[in-house]
TrEMBL record:
Residues 1-109 form the C2 domain. It comes from Medicago truncatula (Barrel medic). CDD domains: C2. This is C2 domain protein. PANTHER family: CONSERVED SERINE PROLINE-RICH PROTEIN (AFU_ORTHOLOGUE AFUA_2G01790), INGRESSION PROTEIN 1. Residues 135-148, 167-177 have a biased composition (Polar residues). SUPFAM superfamilies: C2 domain (Calcium/lipid-binding domain, CaLB). Gene3D superfamilies: C2 domain (2.60.40.150). Residues 193-214 have a biased composition (Low complexity). Signal peptide: none annotated. InterPro entries: C2_dom, C2_domain_sf, Ingression_C2_domain. Residues 135-262 are annotated as: Disordered. The gene is 25494472. It holds the Pfam family C2. Residues 215-235, 242-262 have a biased composition (Pro residues).
Length: 279
């Protein structure tokens, strides 16, 4: 707990007694007394005559507190009537407990100048404003243990009926896009309809080659093969095979004398084939 605002506040110090003091007398009993030093403030108890090692004092003093000073020096002496007083021991009393709790009745050790144990002194410390300081520290704003709570504003909850758009809406523009996009290359002509075979390919675009004169004689009209199939070489007639070679390849019959009729008996009859088949 913080101990603030103690400047000038009264602190009650009661010197109760001493115990197991170092004895500085050889023949008689010593006469101890206690001195209290707090900054520039000094107090002295009465002399406990023949107090010896366990003197009793029961004396109370009021010390004005100083901010930042948290200890009291205690010195015990032996009183002499002829010579200087004898030093018995000294000790330091811490004030943290009494300033925080308001009360302390501990015994504090004493030491000689060489650091040896010289007994104990019992004090009762009382600080009446400890509870008041505790309340002030408890109510003081900005305290680390009691920080005032500031309510945070309630964030606005969006309506669930409205679905936020995750993409920003494009601003409306007065520019009208063309209905037909620009084409960098000319479009190919459409294909002809499949139900009209006569239009593919067009006769004007892809003309068929003209008929070329064939070195072979044209087939006979009575040929059993279609005209699109090439005729056999040489072409045959439906009545009888044509002689080989064709008759038009020889000179006309007018160049030769007409045969005699009837033919000679030794000439075999004309079978219609040339040369005649073997026998």
């Amino acid at each position: 707990m913080m101990m603030s605002g103690i400047q000038g506040q009264p602190l009650e110090v009661t010197v109760v007694s001493c115990s197991k003091l170092k004895d500085t007398e050889w023949i008689s009993r010593q006469d101890p007394y206690v001195c209290i030093e707090y900054a520039s403030t000094k107090f002295r108890t009465r002399t406990c005559t023949d107090g010896g090692k366990n003197p009793v004092f029961q004396e109370k003093f009021i010390l004005p507190l100083i901010e930042g000073l948290r200890e009291i020096n205690v010195v015990v002496w032996n009183s002499n009537t002829v010579s200087f007083d004898d030093f018995i021991g000294t000790g330091k009393v811490q004030l943290h407990k009494v300033l925080s709790q308001g009360f302390d009745d501990s015994s504090w050790p004493l030491q000689t100048k060489t650091g040896r144990h010289a007994g104990e002194v019992k004090l009762i410390l009382h600080y009446t404003n400890a509870n008041a300081n505790a309340k002030v520290n408890h109510q003081k704003p900005g305290s680390s243990s009691h920080t005032p709570y500031t309510a945070m504003p309630t964030p606005a909850v969006p309506s669930y009926n409205h679905v936020p758009s995750y993409y920003p809406q494009q601003p409306h523009s007065n520019y009208h896009h063309p209905t037909t996009p620009a084409v960098a290359y000319p479009q190919p002509p459409p294909y002809p309809a499949s139900h009209n075979p006569s239009s593919y390919p067009p006769s004007s675009t892809y003309p068929y080659p003209q008929s070329v004169s064939s070195p072979y004689p044209p087939p006979s009209s009575s040929s059993p093969y279609p005209s699109s199939v090439p005729s056999p070489y040489p072409p045959t007639s439906s009545s009888s095979p044509s002689p080989y070679p064709p008759p038009h390849s020889y000179p006309p019959s007018s160049a030769y004398p007409p045969p005699s009729y009837p033919p000679p008996a030794g000439y075999p009859p004309n079978t219609g084939f040339y040369p005649p088949p073997p026998y």
